[in-house]
Amino acid sequence: MDGTVDGFRYGAVTPVAAYLMACLGGALGLRCIVRTLLDARSFRAGWLALGAASIGCGIWTMHFIAMIGFHVEETRIRYDAATTVLSLVVAVAVVGVGVFIVGLRGTSGVTLVVAGAVTGLGVAGMHYLGMAAMRLNGEVGYDPVGVALSVLIAIGAATAALWSAVTIRGFLTSLGASLVMGVAVSGMHYTGMAAVSVHVHDMTGGTWEGDSPTSLLLPMLLGPVVFLLLAGVVVMFDPLLVLGERPSASQPDAQHANSTAGSALRGVRRHRPRVHGEQPAADGS
Known about the structure:
There is one protein chain. The protein is mainly α. It has 2 domains: about 5-245, no CATH class; about 250-285. The protein is about 70% helix and about 5% strand. The chain has 9 helices and 6 strands. The chain has helices at about 15-40, 45-70, 80-105, 110-130, 145-165, 170-195, 215-235, 240-245, 250-270, and strands at about 5, 70, 75-80, 135, 140, 195-200. It has a two-stranded antiparallel sheet. Strands 3-4 form a two-stranded antiparallel ribbon. It has a two-stranded antiparallel sheet with strand order 5-6. The radius of gyration is 27 Å and the shape is elongated.
């Protein structure tokens, strides 16, 4: 028989919390990408890796916070720990590919399209791999149209996020972009969930392997949340991101010019014909 599916068991608590985590991960990831663009001499690989991990952890945390509110009335839901962890690895790894493409290959239109497609597929892959971690007394089915729409939303959201990262420099505008990204990622999640149907087996009282959402998801969510908070500290206290300005190329040039001018002036003083009775000037004068 068909199960009664409810994606909002705790009302607005889980959707709002999930949205906030998606925004946090997106904001940190975008700022890390901006950091590499503001200063080409920075440790690009480190900042891009931090950005990829932030976005990946953000969307993974968003997904499983939202899944805490997912409920099927006729059966309990459990989760396979290994598949759940694998979904986090996939999220960080595939999103990382898209982030590194933009960070290292430039910001052309083709680059953004390719990076956005890869990143979006990573977001969608994380979502459906996380859904595959569910264990319940029944079978989960999907509406193909809803699945395709959710994947398109994920690709569009990822492309827009990467575009904003390479075009937006200010803090407030980046914050606004992360809020939009949170809407898109959450929209992708709930679009995919709207495509879900559950056919519950007739047998009752059956047992199946897996951990309950509270015993598995809540402890597992703690690690990514702590990571995002620590990443937030790194980003907030980075001087370049706080100022939001590219290091002035004129400053080193000016210092070099001043040094060159000083050397030239000392050279002129050394080779200037000395007037009779004039004392030689000190080299540092």
